[in-house]
Design goal:
The complex is a heterodimer of chains A (405) and B (117). Among the domains of chain A are: 3-84, Rna Polymerase Sigma Factor, Chain: A, CATH 1.10.1740; 321-405, Alpha Horseshoe (Serine Threonine Protein Phosphatase 5, Tetratricopeptide repeat), CATH 1.25.40. Helices cover 67% and strands 0% of the residues of chain A. Chain A has helices at 3-28, 31-48, 57-75, 101-109, 116-127, 132-138, 143-159, 169-195, 203-217, 222-236, 261-277, 283-296, 305-318, 322-332, 340-349, 359-370, 374-387, 391-404. Classes of the chains: A mainly alpha (405), B alpha+beta (117).
């Protein structure tokens, strides 16, 4: 295949899959069939695009998938679906694709009546187009379990009649929050996947494309913009997160001159817009602001730590979570002149809420080491190691532990 | 429209302590719930309140003769105390209604769709 066709196809797979599935699901009213037809459209592209890449790849794929779907529906007319997907759109022609369809698909996959693990697995399958093996690999779990989870979730969507729609304004915020959380998890899973040296599934690219789509269809909502800002600012640090040997490099030691200025600029613009529009700013806007404070700091030492702590205070207010409180404590440990014993006390107080969370003992270990309490630091690193699966993170923790003696 | 069964679970202390006024209050709560159902464009098509779980008998079929035991199938702190059958347009409406259904815990189960005869 020509390089251009190959690149266009990879790009379309990562950026347009959700658009094609969503537009086809509206027509088929069956998620499995929509998925099959989308798969078939991509297979046709593989054969046809080398002769010339269409001007509008997303449009070409959507038209093709819907044509395949119409053929199948005609052939299988006797197999009328017992439980059609509930498409609700009084204003539009029910079969015509609508710009909000990808959002509907994301909200359906992230419906609160589905368990978080099912939301993530279903999003990776239907929205990102990953197969079961790839999903199992990024979620560090078994293939059979993933397959079961996805089948059950699809059956629940049909049997319990989870509607394919964008909820009314007053219900949108909590639904959107679940969807943004899942997109963020998809991004994070992309990083974990790369850490285990798996085949590049492009999950980080997909998560960014998804948050762009959410910003596009919900321009008045600040939180999708906050998420996009957060992801772009994180992505801007891309290559500097690991060294040439694949070892983890902490933010403190990253080569800031190698951060991608284009992504940083765009990320900062979205973060600022999200902060201004939110009253009060939501958790993704605030997380983007935190990433932004790091992005503009000339060095780790010269970071505006006081502002970082203030921003974490706001984050803990809108999103009271032990993880946010831990990050706040870790930021406070960097403020010049802080009493580290006090910070350690704050971290210790979080133990009951973060029992199996490896970053808690890792953060404690770092503070203990700075206090000169080496034995306790070593024990805390051991605790963190026992909870960490990712080999890159394991090597990092082991390295830190070795530096103690 | 789809049908959902709302299974209502509660602590059973109520049966011991409720006076006439409590029963009347409870009745009003259910009236209000049925009104909310109508306002949501849904419909109550069935439902009953149940006697306490200690009045239940459970029949288990296996090999040989069916085994009858005294008490509910699952002996839990919160027991099944009643149910509604609700016709609702979709799960979002059903879940909104379950949130205002007067019970400590409500399990929402879709009724299986049967092929048309």
């Amino acid at each position: 295949m020509s390089v251009a066709a190959g690149e266009a196809l990879t790009r379309a797979y990562r950026e347009c899959w959700v658009v094609v599935v969503a537009a086809t699901a509206r027509l088929t009213r069956d998620l499995d069939l929509a998925e099959d037809c989308t798969q078939e459209a991509f297979e046709r592209a593989l054969r046809v695009w080398p002769e010339g890449v269409p001007d509008n790849p997303a449009g070409w794929l959507t038209t093709t998938a819907r044509r395949v779907a119409l053929d199948r529906l005609r052939r299988e007319q006797t197999l009328r679906r017992k439980l059609p997907l509930l498409v609700e759109d009084p204003a539009a022609d029910e079969a015509e694709p609508a710009p909000t369809d990808p959002l509907r698909l994301v909200l359906t996959c992230c419906h609160p009546a589905l368990a978080r693990e099912s939301q993530v697995a279903l999003t990776l399958r239907l929205v990102c187009g990953l197969d079961t093996a790839a999903i199992a690999a990024v979620l560090l779990t078994g293939e059979a379990g993933v397959a079961r989870r996805i089948t059950r979730a699809k059956r629940k969507i049909a049997a319990a009649r989870i509607p394919f729609r964008v909820p009314a304004d007053d219900e949108l915020a909590p639904r959107l929050d679940a969807a943004l959380t899942v997109v963020h998890l998809v991004y994070t899973a992309g990083h974990v996947g790369s850490g285990t040296e798996l085949a590049d599934t492009g999950l980080t690219t997909r998560a960014i494309a998804l948050s762009r789509m959410l910003v596009r269809v919900l321009p008045a909502e600040p939180e999708p913009r906050g998420l996009l800002g957060l992801l772009l600012l994180t992505e801007a640090r891309g290559g500097t997160r690991t060294d040439p040997d694949g070892e983890l490099v902490l933010l403190a030691d990253q080569d800031r001159s190698a951060w991608d200025p284009r992504r940083t600029r765009e990320g900062l613009a979205h973060a600022t817009a999200a902060l201004r529009a939110g009253t009060p700013p939501g958790r993704f806007a605030l997380q983007a602001a935190l990433a932004g404070l790091h992005a503009v700091a000339p060095s780790w030492e010269r970071t505006d730590w006081s502002q970082v702590v203030v921003t974490y205070d706001a984050l803990v207010r809108v999103w009271p979570s032990a993880v946010a409180a831990l990050n706040r404590a870790a930021a406070r440990s960097q403020v010049p002149g802080v009493d580290l014993r006090e910070v350690l006390g704050e971290m210790d107080a979080l133990t009951p809420d973060l029992v199996r969370y490896p970053y808690l003992p890792a953060a404690r270990a770092s503070v203990l080491a700075r206090l000169g309490r080496r034995e306790e630091a070593a024990a805390a690193y051991d605790e963190a190691l026992a909870l960490t699966v990712n080999p890159v993170e394991r090597r990092f923790l082991a390295g830190r532990r070795a530096e103690l003696s | 429209m789809a049908q959902y069964v709302f299974l209502m679970y509660d602590s059973e202390d109520w049966y011991d302590t409720a006076g006439d006024q409590d029963v009347a209050d409870e009745f009003r709560l259910h009236e209000a719930f049925m009104e909310a159902v109508r306002e949501a464009g849904a419909e109550v098509v069935g439902g009953e309140a149940l006697e306490r779980s200690s009045t239940a008998s459970t029949v288990r079929r296996g090999e040989g003769a069916p085994l009858v035991t005294d008490g509910p199938f699952a002996d839990t702190k919160e027991a099944l105390g009643g149910f509604y059958v609700i016709d609702a347009p979709d799960l979002d409406v059903a879940l909104r209604l379950a949130a205002v259904c007067p019970a400590g815990t409500v399990e929402v189960r879709p009724v299986m769709a049967m092929p048309d005869a």
